[in-house]
């Protein structure tokens, strides 16, 4: 795997972690994290991901 690809994945993971941390600590989050505890939302996200992966 090329170094640029690995570096991009590391940067993306760090950015996602920073975003989730900021959202968890903020007074008015853009993305309320308790939303992901809902089974309907979680299943919908998984199904949507699977559909997009299948189309890809």
User: How many β-strand stretches?
Assistant: 0
Given the helix and strand composition, which structural class is it? mainly alpha
Q: What is the molecular shape?
A: flat
Which percent range fits the helix content? Answer: over 70%
Gap from first CA to last CA: 21 Å
Order of helices and strands: HH
Segments where pLDDT lies below 50 for 5+ residues? Answer: none
Topology:
Elements: H1 3-25, H2 39-55
Mind explaining what this structure looks like?
It is a single chain. The chain is mainly alpha-helical and 56 residues long. The chain is 71% helix and 0% strand. It is built from two helices and no strands. The chain has helices at 3-25, 39-55.
Notable characteristics:
single chain; 56 residues; mainly alpha; 2 helices
């Amino acid at each position: 795997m090329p170094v640029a690809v690995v570096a991009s994945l590391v940067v993306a993971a760090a950015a996602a972690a920073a975003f989730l941390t900021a959202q968890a600590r903020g007074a008015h989050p853009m993305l309320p994290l308790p939303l992901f505890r809902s089974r309907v939302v979680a299943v919908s996200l998984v199904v949507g991901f699977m559909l997009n992966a299948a189309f890809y």
